[in-house]
Design a protein that fits this description.
mainly beta, 1 helix
Length: 86
């Protein structure tokens, strides 16, 4: 289930193959995602959920508080076999 804090892998668009954090899920199902660098928290991207693959990682609110913390959290080595979920 896609929710705030879920880390997703972009499958399409200019951000293809990049890890992004879900900041919000809109009522129509679209996601608002950011990575803290190309897409800062203040200017998230609206993304179709069909164009992302969710991972097992979920970030806490502290990790999404600032762009610096978000970049740091997304750049951490993935632990426990955190591949994209099918």
């Amino acid at each position: 289930m896609l929710q705030r804090g879920r880390v997703v892998l972009s499958l399409a668009g200019r951000d293809k193959d990049r890890l992004l954090a879900v900041l919000a899920v809109e009522p129509d199902g679209y996601l608002m995602v950011a990575d803290g660098k190309e897409r800062p928290i203040q200017r998230p991207k609206r993304k179709n959920p069909r164009h992302v693959a969710q991972t097992r990682r979920i970030l806490g609110e502290k990790a999404m508080a600032t762009n610096r913390e978000l970049r740091r959290a997304l750049g951490q080595p993935e632990t426990g076999g955190d591949e994209a979920a099918q």
